[in-house]
Amino acid sequence: MSLRRSSRRKRLGNRYRPSKTLAGGNRRGETAIQNPSVGCKAALYLRLSRDDDNPGESESIQNQRSLLQAYAMREGLCVVEEYVDDGWSGTSFDRPRFQDMLRDMVQRRFEVVLVKDLSRLGRDYIQTGRYLELVFPEHGVRLIAVGDGIDTARADTDLAPFRNVMNEMYARDTSRKIRGALHAKMQAGKFIGHFAPYGYQKDPKDKNHLVPDERAAATVRQIFVWAAAGKRPAEIARMLNERGEAPPAVYRTLMHPGLNPDHYTKHKEWTSAGVSRMLQDVVYLGHVAQGKTDKISFKSKKTREKRADEWIVVPNQHEPLVSKQTFAAVQHQRSARRCDRKGAFSNLFSGLAFCKDCGKAMSTVGTRKKGSAANLACGAYKLRGASACSNHFISYEALYRCVLEAVRRYVCLSEQACSTLFERLNRRLRLDERGQAAGRERERLTQERERGQRLIAQLYEDRAAGRIGDATFYPLLERYERKTDMLGQQIAALQPDNGAESLQRLQERLWAMIRRYTDVAELTPSLLFELIERIEVGQGTYEKTEQGRVKRQKIVIHFRFLSEPYEIDWIE
User: Fold this and answer.
1) pLDDT digit string (tens) for 262-292?
2) Is 134 helix (H, G, I), strand (E, B) or coil?
3) Could you tell me if 390 and 381 are in contact, meaning their C-beta atoms sit under 8 angstroms apart?
4) Which of 128, 250, 321, 414 could serve as a FRET partner for 401 with CA atoms 20 to 30 Å apart?
């Protein structure tokens, strides 16, 4: 046998079957070779990066299937398996059904893989070439790209690498165009995220616009109120967990029943880190901040965190959930440094008191004065000495008394003033509007619950018709029933209260809020951050008087409710 024929036999392997002499004989005495494809077990691989508008499978997947089945029938191939990745990008090979195909290939379940063209296999020319030239041949599997006319069993596949490069160039160009379109949307202030941030939902009329989700928005407002009052993120997270509030990831899966909560959160509870992220998110001021990360390459899933100055922030694009004053107060609280050790000194003015001359924060320093907790000094002086600034020393107790007197002078109300204010605010209580808001929320929850009940009924119909099996039926049934039960509890919680009782509760809360300012006995973190924006401490000077040596020092207090700062010539 010639060397050429021996090589051909090795290449065809077990599929080589010499036939009998053709009818009428062969004058040269040669044997005819049958089509090597006849009877081979084949697998169809179909992929599309995005679903079209058709329900179920996309139109392109159906077309690919028809083309490949027709080719297999024409060539005498026996199709034993079909692998479909509908909605998966070709730039990555971590596709579920593609990986299934590789595992079945190792088990020799098929001998041929059919694809419409090489771009269906993948758009990364390096990885696609690796599968064509190494992986498939090592397992004795032929790849046939019907549309490109490529068959790895033939020797005329020299153009395959060029086709792979062209496919990757197409994917790169498409990725560039998509990024450009998304960047333009971000610069226009349009929200492009898959899910709205906690506290918001996508506007039904415009998916790129955010509107408040009243139930979650109430929780967001409460979080900021607690934080402005001095509560730390860990405390806030603990209180939310005790109240049974669903954390953002869990709440998202409740609003979208098709999502699996295990894919979004492990602990399924509020954490201090999650609360901290919310407290510094400008989305609650009505701004849209996007472009916080970018991908290293269109072929990689890894992302890079971008600096804050690289973000795309467009202000005033939707309704804010917190005021600028509350947000600023929370940032003051977050920047303040405190010691958590029991019995340790806690500086109430951390984040509020600053040097009047250089603007640096006042820092605690030691003191020799008996009964004094600490002195406050200019942070620049403490760090670099007299070359940076003067000391601006003031005892902590002196600053405390000074601020307390100023608060009592401008904030404390008489009993008559409290009564007058209560009557004025009481007339402005909008109970009707509150009732209307609760009614709208009940209506929304009721509609959502009815939709869930329809889904449950449809599940039973699909199971009875044999369209779904028990493995799919029971998990979906449990999820939908849990969702409808929770909606029922929310509807019950929104049932209208007795009007008189509701009015009485609101009046009690209003009166308690006003009475907080009738007699301020001591300073608290929440009170300071509600009333004061900044305290400036001037350099003290000493003078001799008939009563002895005294210290004069100018203190400037910027109240949030006064247009002009309040200056005190403090004598100690």
Assistant:
1) 776 777 788 888 898 889 888 899 888 887 7
2) helix
3) yes
4) 414
Q: What is the pLDDT of residues 159-214, one digit of tens each?
A: 555 555 555 555 555 566 666 666 677 777 788 777 888 999 988 888 888 999 98
- Cα dist. 194→252, 372, 556, 569 in Å? 11, 56, 48, 57
As a whole number of Å, the end-to-end CA separation of the chain is 116
Are the C-beta atoms of residues 568 and 538 closer than 8 Å to each other?
no
Q: Can you give the pTM of this predicted structure?
A: 0.42
- According to DSSP, the residues that pair with 395 across neighbouring strands are 375
- E strand or H helix that includes residue 202: strand 200-203
Position 455 pLDDT exceeds 90: no
Between 46-55, 63-72, 545-554, the lowest mean confidence (pLDDT) is in 46-55
Beta bridge partners of 550: 543
SS (HEC) of 88-129: CCCCCCCCHHHHHHHHHHHCCCCCEEEECCHHHHCCCHHHHH
For residue 333, give every residue at least 6 positions away whose Cβ sits within 8 Å of its Cβ, in sequence order, or none: 227, 228, 230, 351, 525, 529
One-letter amino acid identity for 563?
Answer: S
- The rounded distance, in Å, linking the Cα atoms of 484 and 481 is 5
DSSP 155: S
- In 3D space, the residue among 311, 362, 301 whose CA is nearest the CA of residue 337 turns out to be 362
